[in-house]
Write a structure and sequence with these properties.
Blueprint lengths: L4 E7 L6 H14 L3 E6 L2 H4 L8 H7 L6 H8 L3 H13 L3 E6 L2 H10 L3 E4 L7 H8 L4 E5 L5 H13 L7 E6 L14 H9 L2 E6 L5 H9 L3 E5 L17 H18 L14 H4 L2 E4 L14 E4 L10 H4 L17
Parallel strand pairs: 1-2, 1-8, 2-3, 4-5, 5-6, 6-7, 7-8
Antiparallel strand pairs: 9-10
Helix pairs in contact: 1-5, 1-11, 7-8, 10-11
């Protein structure tokens, strides 16, 4: 199995603080993630000043009167901060990229030539946005929260018709509720996406804990995206549904273990268990003392460990044969 691409989603969990953003990069490196991802937007381009926050955002920011616009304004990263974080990630030897949430941000990220685009669930029905990203003709990861198959098909068609090769598109199953209730994960839909569209599949997770991303890898996910934070008790819209650094590291290690454990479709005797064959399997032995000239029967033969003698699968071959010598009880039969 090829290596699962693990994206540590820092998102806006830096709270607008470049120092916290760098600490998030450090945590992603320590966890062994492949990418660290942020979010790129201008508040005035993303939300109207009248747009309300989602209920989970209201709860996690402890300010129900604050507008979504005001919240987003506090969480913006400037162009200079993007360059600083990108260079810092390069210095720490982890890949950096970001999700654009408006057309100006798409154009800005194009100048960074990151080579990889992430389309968030909320933009999957945004035709001008999809077309602008497609114009780069680079790899695209498409999140599909709040989507039907028809929504995915329509977005895929925009990408394909505007220059993106199908081989460059990966589709992530996703649920956008923070946190996602287990009953709403619907993980098997990921496999339906693969069958329907013939693309690489993955999973963007917003559940509490790490077991669902691990299950997704076992089902065939090639990309896992998971939000993380330095501390879930920090104030901000996404902290509560994010992993802390220790948990992120545990998730990465568990995924790597699952990758190794999946192996190949061929059923073989593994190197580690080969030595157990003679210990765990059985051989045909004398149930009771057998004299030379006695006939082997179901009454005077049995099967016991170790498996160093004649296999019990040859039982019928021995029945009716004549003992060519004496055998003591438990002695392996020879013919």
């Amino acid at each position: 199995m090829s290596k699962t691409l693990i994206i540590a989603e820092a998102g806006v969990n830096h709270n607008g603080d470049i120092g916290l953003a760098k600490e998030l990069i450090n945590a992603a490196v320590a966890a062994g993630a492949d990418y660290v991802k942020f979010q790129t937007f201008k508040a005035e381009k993303l939300a109207s000043k009248l747009a309300r926050k989602a209920s989970y955002q209201e709860e996690n920011t402890n300010d129900r009167k604050e507008s979504q616009y005001d919240m987003l304004k506090r969480l913006e990263l400037s162009a200079e901060q993007h360059f600083e974080l990108m260079n810092y990630a390069r210095h720490r030897n982890i890949k950096f990229f970001s999700t654009a949430f408006d057309l100006d941000s798409v154009d800005f990220l194009s100048t960074l030539n990151l080579g990889l685009w992430k389309i968030p669930s909320g933009e999957i029905t945004n035709y001008p946005y999809l077309k602008r990203i497609a114009a780069n003709r680079q790899s695209v990861i498409l999140s599909t929260g709040m989507c039907t198959m028809d929504d995915i098909r329509a977005a895929m068609n925009v990408l394909l018709q505007n220059g993106v090769d199908k081989e460059l598109i990966s589709v992530l199953h996703c649920n956008t509720q923070y946190p996602t209730p287990m009953r709403d994960v619907n993980l098997l839909a990921m496999l339906s996406i693969k069958r329907e569209f013939g693309v690489n599949i993955g999973y963007s997770d917003h559940t509490i804990g790490i077991e669902i991303p691990i299950a997704a890898v076992a089902l065939g996910a090639t990309i896992i995206e998971k939000h993380f934070t330095l501390n879930r008790d920090m104030e901000g819209p996404d902290h509560k549904a994010s992993l802390e650094p220790k948990e992120l590291k545990e998730m990465v290690q568990a995924i790597r273990n699952v990758e190794m454990a999946l192996g190949s479709p061929e059923k073989i005797i593994s190197q580690s268990e080969n030595e157990n064959i003679v210990i765990a399997r059985k051989s045909i032995v004398a149930r009771t003392a057998i004299k030379k000239g006695d006939v082997f029967t179901d009454n005077n033969l049995t099967a016991k460990r170790p498996g160093t003698g004649i296999s019990p699968m040859r039982w019928l071959d021995l029945l009716g044969k004549i003992a060519t010598r004496d055998f003591n009880e438990d002695e392996q039969i020879e013919v």
